[in-house]
């Protein structure tokens, strides 16, 4: 079991303790333990009680509970609280913006014990009867429930990529003489996946025999040419069978998107059945269109006119910007993060962007700690040369759009990522102006995760995208493609507009540990969907080019 999964169990325990109004000091201790377990520098699985209990914030009793979780998935105190909690009340803990205290009031004061009842109460304006609830809170809860309901059965691409590859790999090894390929959303590298689609030249009877030997999948339904199944995580799969001679045309048609296929059919109603997708596009008078671009967003005209961009690849990246370390809320030290980039990833540079002083929840850096970090950066740059660490910061954008360090400090960073982390509930006009004010700050180099969205969890704050992107173009501010699979923000649908306006983009992992650095791959996927080429990506610049860019940027 991964540390994150163990941490989630402790978080649930602390939430239930608060729900039942247990000792607040013990409740806070369990919440703190959850955070500490998630940040452990080693896997809890395989560790001893002594090893765990010597970690800061983890005592012997917490270590013993970890051992019980590893053995049985839970511990007695948690089981007792779960047994006392109606399932619907447990489900309310997943609703954004609704904490245990409010849930206790909903449950005990209003007698509501399910999310369905809660939504009904919001629609009937009943929630305001409970203590601590106003019209605004009621509306936010309603929106959160509706957002959650709309996302049922959906998964992040990063969540399904590896497990989907296992199924495809097993098909290839069992039937090496056949053709098999991902198709649909997963082939187009969509950030959210409803179903993993696979096209194969195996017959359905062969697939059924193969699945009978693979008990992790449950068959939901099957037809003459397709079979649908789910795995233990609830991920849905659709395996479609096609004859060998139709593999290319069916791969094209099932990859989609629906709009893309309709636009192809507008060129020729009966799309020709040829030996490859490349041959089909050529027959339609088009250059080959990469699957990621097939979203009906202008790629057909690009292909007609020979204007398809040279799409960026992971190999094009020369460095990584926007990363954290143990100076703020990272798991690994500055040296560990930089060394991993140099030795394991083969990169030329590393940009450190720990949290700024306002982010006290993330151990944001006061000015004294910033200066300490600069001294270490200088030492490491001598040690790791010619690899270079750039002095950066993720500076909080305050409510008025200002950054949270004085100009004399901001001026000494090599680059500044400006991001919003608080007061996410502004209306569109105020949120847009807040960003524009930060963009116009002469020390802002990169606009970080522009909307603050968390996929399948929290919609971004409302902004006027065109105004924000236009401001970045006018002020030569780079826009981040935050590559964390939960963010992937800036959305690829707006990347094309940014590129049209001449804005540079930067694929930033926002990594808090070494393994998070490889999240740049997910950023590359959505950047390809947005039409990004290496020459328009900041961290595809060579070390010499980005050094020059940062110097020239400061002179403007």
UniProtKB/TrEMBL annotation:
SUPFAM superfamilies: DNA polymerase beta, N-terminal domain-like, Nucleotidyltransferase, PHP domain-like. Pfam families: HHH_5, HHH_8. GO terms for biological process: bacterial-type flagellum-dependent swarming motility. GO terms for cellular component: cytosol. SMART domains: POLIIIAc, POLXc. The keyword tRNA processing does not apply. GO terms for molecular function: DNA binding; DNA-directed DNA polymerase activity; exonuclease activity; phosphoric ester hydrolase activity; zinc ion binding. Residues 319-399 form the Polymerase/histidinol phosphatase N-terminal domain. Keywords: Exonuclease, Hydrolase, Nuclease. InterPro entries: DNA-dir_DNA_pol_X, DNA_pol_lamdba_lyase_dom_sf, DNA_Pol_thumb_sf, HHH_MUS81, NT_sf, PHP_phosphatase, Pol/His_phosphatase_N, Pol/histidinol_Pase-like. Residues 1-295 form the DNA-directed DNA polymerase X domain. The keyword Hydrolase applies. This is DNA polymerase/3'-5' exonuclease PolX.
